[in-house]
Amino acid sequence: MAANGATARRRSSSDYSEVQASRLGTSLSLPDVLRNSFKVVDGPPSSATGNPDEIAKLFPVLFGQPSAKIVPADQKSTADSNQRLKVGVVLSGGQAPGGHNVISGLLDYLQDKTKGSTLYGFRGGPAGIMKCKYVVLTTNYVYPYRNQGGFDMICSGRDKIETPEQFKQAQETAVKIDLDGLVVIGGDDSNTNACLLAENFREKKMKTQVIGCPKTIDGDLKSEEVPASFGFDTACKLYAEMIGNVMVDARSTGKYYHFVRLMGRAASHITLECSLQTHPNITIIGEEVAAKKQTLKNVTDYITDVICKRAENGYNYGVILIPEGLIDFIPEVQQLIAELNEILAHDVVDEGGMWKKKLGSQSLKLFEILPHAIQKQLLLERDPHGNVQVAKIETEKMLIEMVETELESRKKQGLYKNVFSAQSHFFGYEGRCGLPSNFDANYCYALGYAAGALLHSGKTGLISSVGNLSAPVEKWTAGGTALTSLMDVERRHGNFKPVIKKAMVELEGAPFKKFLSMREEWAVKNRYISPGPLQHVGPTSNSSNHTLMLELGAQA
Amino acid sequence: MAANGATARRRSSSDYSEVQASRLGTSLSLPDVLRNSFKVVDGPPSSATGNPDEIAKLFPVLFGQPSAKIVPADQKSTADSNQRLKVGVVLSGGQAPGGHNVISGLLDYLQDKTKGSTLYGFRGGPAGIMKCKYVVLTTNYVYPYRNQGGFDMICSGRDKIETPEQFKQAQETAVKIDLDGLVVIGGDDSNTNACLLAENFREKKMKTQVIGCPKTIDGDLKSEEVPASFGFDTACKLYAEMIGNVMVDARSTGKYYHFVRLMGRAASHITLECSLQTHPNITIIGEEVAAKKQTLKNVTDYITDVICKRAENGYNYGVILIPEGLIDFIPEVQQLIAELNEILAHDVVDEGGMWKKKLGSQSLKLFEILPHAIQKQLLLERDPHGNVQVAKIETEKMLIEMVETELESRKKQGLYKNVFSAQSHFFGYEGRCGLPSNFDANYCYALGYAAGALLHSGKTGLISSVGNLSAPVEKWTAGGTALTSLMDVERRHGNFKPVIKKAMVELEGAPFKKFLSMREEWAVKNRYISPGPLQHVGPTSNSSNHTLMLELGAQA
């Protein structure tokens, strides 16, 4: 099999739509602090998000190092402008709009401040580092990808640098091409790995520094210093456009409930943001389901209740948003799946259903209320390790069937009289590779430029952080946050593993509270908003998303 | 059950996104001929598209009437400007972007030229006419819907005015509110019905005139005089945006084949247009499949061949477009379904499969190669008449399974070595209710304005037609085409029924030929184009679609 992306074709001008071409020609703004003379200054020593003692043991060299701020300087940067750097960059994990601009920003920094430097793009993700597969990224090479979506400039991959053997391969590559620095663009896992790599290089007395960049459309890599992960803004706007269209359709047709599943497995930020942008009748937030220890029946009943209430008001249609990872948040489903994996590993599933006696009573009850197709899927479709394939369950279709069954039963009791028709949607891939919004385009460019500045000033083990995002681009701040300061440990197979904790939807946070204050009205009345196509010029083109603005306190 | 849309909530300004609001404030352009003094002049007598003798019998009053042109006049219109008209308008069938602008254009005509007139919006489609359910459409009422997607101003419905009883109800409504005219906004069926209604009113010596307007995102209502149906332009642009994003994703990820099913059952115009906009690796056009009498196996083999060829070139990913109505174009599938309906009506489907002996050999062979899920669906899911539910088959998933099976078999022969992973998509509802493109916004406004002029000049049984669409809006022409001239007859249950023939993809037409000249290159090389979000200002905002321009000879 050809390596991931190894075969992607270089873009050429004939491949561009007019809109893409016009974005290509749009110049990027830099925060004032990066545009003018600046210096990198250290903050106070840092600790860790949790278990600092364990993190200190895992990162003996880097633990406690200060975060850095980039601040205006009266004169030229203290960094040596005659230095020529050899820097690598890698894209890790799923696509997010803006990745190409991180690379553009990094390249522009090197061109502006360390003329004669070389930028290596490792191909196909971390595997490219281990196999020393790269392309030299020149201005000409990078230009066709400016402001463009996708990761196809150098492609990405999901391999990890984890084992001693893999670390050794990475070291060999760093030595072979004499790398001064490496920028890792990725999510929480990739940034954890970036920090391990930084630690490893330092420990081996190698000069190669490592800087991370926060990427994920899921929006679950963020903290006080790293207020947003790039791609979330664009992806949510694209999903919200489509949800808004579906809403207008629902209201016009007057006879369908649209169940929309949205990408985002581990956290429900995308679903919450899309809800704030479009005001659907029902929004399920995984974190709330988990906090309230809700069952699948609870969720089904809630949806059914709203449908019945709407029927009383004369509305026989609606729009319902569901996060991709919903069932991962339901404890009883996790329990059922664990029991099924156990049973399927040892027993034959007999037609007569004798095997079901091995299920606990709660799991059996849950299994019995699942739609037949889902039951089948749970029993038949397994991953290479023999485990049930939870990720393959089409949650929106499962809920439609469960709501249908519940409505039938209410109909028999005379509690519901309408005809229920549903349409299902999954919005995912359409959003990962859209043209970056102005926000993501500028944010990424600043992240990349700042990453260059951090490397140039000798930093390692930091994640590029751009702040003050509720202000215009000119006023944004820049710096680098100690990756160890974002970490906690998890116990896996008896060992402590460092992890950057995923940022979940906070039930006490401003975005969820805003949603909470409105959802009852949205449920029964119709307050649909259709955001329309993502704009690059004119109204709304420079606004970011509700989640970010609410978290920054910049929106009521 | 609440009548379709009867309960839709009026839009208010708080429901608008900024983009919607900005569209609301955008003024609409009218063709010069409608903006200045004009008169309506008749062309030569018309005939019918087919079987003129039968059409003459079905439309004894209207058959042969001339089409009309709206042309500049030296002085004020010959139509009486002191006349006050009572005009009704109705939306019929599925949503298409721009419907609200037809109504805006009609209202503006009445305001401009027949001050004091009243516009009645029949609610929920033709049922609103029969039940005399309407709302008076004032400037204030209509304003919030200008340039907005959806049909929620008065909603739509799929009822038809067909039986003598239903015609009587329509007559009663016309008499009750003293209707001078009625504008029917709909597809081929609705316009056929509009003409029957016009004939009926004339025959009964009633004054009510009827004018049609060409609506359908499917693009299958068009002729020389009616070069486009509205909504097609916007819907294709929205689908193409998403397809473009999926392409960038495919190229970046390098490991998925994306099978994209696109709305459009009867004809494959949408699929062809999206293909011309985005250059996918494979596009299946139903009309070509039918013309070549291809089997499902032929289609599967074609897709598999391209996948294998791409694998040899190092590409293990791609994008494939499939029209929603594909299997309706495959004769053997139609045959199988007919046989199944017959068998299922009379026999029990036994587990042992004895029932299969009743299938003809060709149908049995086809049934056996279908994926299990599809076999089940064909046997179990039936509509209220007991018929197999063809419309519910997810063609893209069926093809994925069939291609998978074929690739497995080639793998065993050593002809294919890669891992095949596929993602499925269906783009439909997201496109029907988008914000109208500038083209659809202006086209609809002109259609509605012209419909007003036709009514005012005493015309009936015409469809509003706006032409010269490759020129700027100012130079567009306007007029009305005799609906009978678009008709042919079909024999149904032994009787002749008038029909406006659906315009299919012409294999000798310019759009298909353009596609044909490029598809081999698109298949093996990657020529993806990602059109990006629909623009209302700036580049591409005023261009229409490839199909229209190629058909008009305005694009090579």
Textual characterization of the structure:
The structure is a homodimer of 556-residue chains. Chain A is α/β, with parallel strands linked by helices. The first copy, chain A, folds into two domains: 32-231 and 436-500, Rossmann fold (3-Layer(aba) Sandwich), CATH 3.40.50.450; 233-432 and 508-551, 3-Layer(aba) Sandwich (Rossmann fold). Helix content of chain A is 40%, strand content 15%. Chain A has 20 helices and 16 strands. Chain A has helices at residues 18-24, 32-35, 52-58, 99-113, 126-130, 139-142, 164-176, 188-203, 232-253, 269-278, 286-291, 296-312, 331-346, 361-369, 372-380, 395-412, 429-432, 438-456, 510-524, 546-551, and strands at 38-42, 68-72, 86-92, 118-122, 134-136, 156-157, 181-186, 209-214, 257-262, 282-283, 318-323, 422-427, 462-467, 477-482, 487-492, 495-500. In chain A, the strands form three sheets. In chain A, strands 1, 2, 3, 4, 5, 6, 7, 8, 13 and 14 form a ten-stranded mixed sheet that branches. Chain A has a four-stranded parallel sheet with strand order 10-11-9-12, sandwiched between helices. In chain A, strands 15-16 form a two-stranded antiparallel sheet. The longest helix of chain A has 22 residues, at 232-253. Residues 1-8 of chain A have low confidence and may be disordered. Chains A and B meet through helix 1, helix 9 and helix 17 of A and helix 1, helix 9 and helix 17 of B. Chains A, B: The record marks 215 as: Important for catalytic activity. Chains A, B: It is found in: Cytoplasm.
Structural class determined from secondary elements of chain A: alpha/beta
Biggest interface reads:
A-B, 75 and 74 residues
Described by its quaternary structure, the protein is homodimer
The value of Rg of chain A in angstroms is 25 Å
How confident is the prediction overall: mean pLDDT of chain A?
93
The total beta strand count of chain A reads: 16
Amino- and carboxy-terminal Cα gap of chain A: 52 Å
Query: What is the helical fraction of chain A, as a range of percent?
Result: 25-40%
Counting H and I runs of at least 4 residues, what is the number of helices of chain A? 20
